Amino acid sequence: MSSEAVFIQVGALAEGFAPQSHTLEQRHGLAGNTLAFHFSDGETVNCRFNDDQTLLWGEQQVDYRATSIRPEILFIDFLDPQQANGSITLVCDRQQGNFTAVYGQLPDEAQVRLDAFSRVEQGLPLTAVKAEFRFGRLDSSTAPWPQFTDELIGMRNLYTYSPTERYEHIYLNEHFYTWQCLDGVEKGLADVDRCHYVKVAEKLYLFVWREKIVPTLGVVMIDLQGMRTDGKILGYQGSDFNALSNFAVGAHAQILNITQYPPG
């Protein structure tokens, strides 16, 4: 009998994904540009790209990663300068003139060590990883805001992140998806986790998941025209909760099948 697969820390996951990863190259040419993010609640934040490594988010300078899975679509990610163990991801459609911002935050050690049964007793979500979605417009645009979507529900997709790492996703309903590792450092592992879907453009989606066993936030673009993904995973380096791992991920995508339920 084979040994049982064991969950690993996000830092170890990053090491497994790194060799020959299918992530997109860093988007260049943003240096000197400024984008005004007008949030739906009335707040405005100016983002100035100093160079290809740093930007000013308001008055806070941070290191960032930016990619472009399609022309005029920007994926910008950085650690939140005002929130411990947090990150900010901006998905900008410069053609339409709108954006989605995902403010993520990992739980502290006390929250992580609260067991699942206690969370249920206290009426808490099973995952302590947080994700706040904020929508808005870029610069002087009057475009409609992005919306949550159900268009991925029912899909069973295969994602190849590198020559050694393959995962399967099944998008179950508007709140949950299931995943399993077919090959790689998590081979044999599977779970059902909380997730969210936002439609960015035709056949282009922002997919966010929040894991409950090892505190993990995934924020990924899924392009079902180009059949590839790009994004990031945020978690802790190890079990001491003193260091973050915020690493890039990207995959080649394949739709295996689509489940359509008969009317109830």
Automatic annotation (TrEMBL):
Which residues belong to any copy of the Molybdenum cofactor biosynthesis protein F N-terminal domain?
Answer: 6-108
* InterPro entries documented for this protein: Calycin, MoaF_C, MoaF_N
What Pfam families does the entry give? MoaF, MoaF_C
Residue span(s) of domain MoaF C-terminal: 147-258
Name of the protein: MoaF
